[in-house]
Design a protein that fits this description.
There is one protein chain. The N and C termini lie far apart (about 80 Å). The chain is of the alpha/beta class. Helix content is about 45%, strand content about 15%. It has 3 domains: about 170 residues, Nitrogenase molybdenum iron protein domain (Rossmann fold); about 180 residues, Rossmann fold, CATH 3.40.50; about 30 residues, no CATH class. The strands form 3 sheets. It has a 6-stranded parallel beta sheet with strand order 1-11-10-9-12-13, sandwiched between helices. Helix 2 packs across helix 3 and helix 15 runs antiparallel to helix 16. InterPro entries: Ald_DH/histidinol_DH, Histidinol_DH_CS, Histidinol_DH_monofunct, Hstdl_DH.
Length: about 425
Amino acid sequence: MKRLVGTNKEISRILYEEQLALSQQQTDVDDLVREILSQVKIRGDEALRAYSQEFDQLAIQDLEVGDSLIEAAFAELDTRVLAALERAQKNIESYHRQQLEQGFEDQPSPGVIRGQLIRPIERVGVYVPGGTAAYPSSVLMNVIPAKIAGVKEIIMITPPQEHFNPAILVAAKLAGVNKIYQVGGAQGIAALAYGTETIPKVDKITGPGNIFVARAKKLVYGLVGIDMIAGPSEIGILADETANPAYLAADLLSQAEHDQLARAILVTNSDQLANQVQEQLEIQLKTLPREAIARRSIEDNGRIIITDSLASMFELMNQIAPEHLEIAMDQAYSYLDLVENAGSVFLGHYTSEPIGDYYAGTNHVLPTTSTSRFSSALGVYDFIKRIQYTQYSQEALAVVADDIRCLAYAEGLAGHARAIEARSQK
């Protein structure tokens, strides 16, 4: 990992410029993604089958994953994996049920009623990656909050495979997915956004994916809702001399193995700890099955930053605004109030980030590339709509009519004023 030296302002600028460079790489595929979106919009299922042949080298006739494949997945799945998925499901459900919102109504003055309705989104599409890394945990994280919100229909798409990872199909069934279709990439996002002969158009698309999926989601946003524009995975660790360097190295690599573009950043006030972590990274990389990916990530995007105080550490990390934030210190909980920007926080020496990825119940669909400055983890609130309502009686309108007319004319909108005047005249 490279070391960064300088003031917090200087380091923040360097990290920001590095982030911009990574973002620029993502836009290079936009022309291809636009063409894929256009072809699916025009040709529907025919285009989906053609792209499956081109990109996945599979000839797909039946786009829907049938019940027989799902039943076979249950029979094939290791019973220990099934039990772990079921326990994770319960934790995710218990956490997210606490996010349910209630509508409200008040009567601030005689003849006036105001309120807000909570309504679920009707149909949601969930993208689940395939290929080198299939994530049944992502199925649970996307689908369970939608079900708790009351979404009526959840469509899942995943890239076609000669043999599906059984855990993906089992997780979908456990979480309550209504239909599964084998289509991936930008073409899958297009199918969800526009609809085809087989795949219904949805109202919102969630779920992680590669660069083509991310760019496709951005390009269809507005026609449908999306959860976020996710960049490469990232972890930020705040650690002092009480931290275990072997633990820190393992946690940094847990994100680095996702993607060559993943970012792993350690901020510490201990030069000795920084050296020990550097040594541990090399030791652990040599035995990591995804060493090639993780090594490239650590060497290109990994950073160790040494500051002179705890206050400076937190100030810098809040500017970084990481997707995952670990506070590897004694009494870590006492520092929680110092956190301003982070997708999800992991406190103490034994709360490794993968606990949140799989099991604790907090969501692992998180804002990346510093967007935790203004956005949050996926939750039940992402699958609902808030509908306002208002009622004024004739008498209540008469009390406020002059104020409304005054404001309308001040904005040069006589039609607005006349709509009030028409009801105010005897």
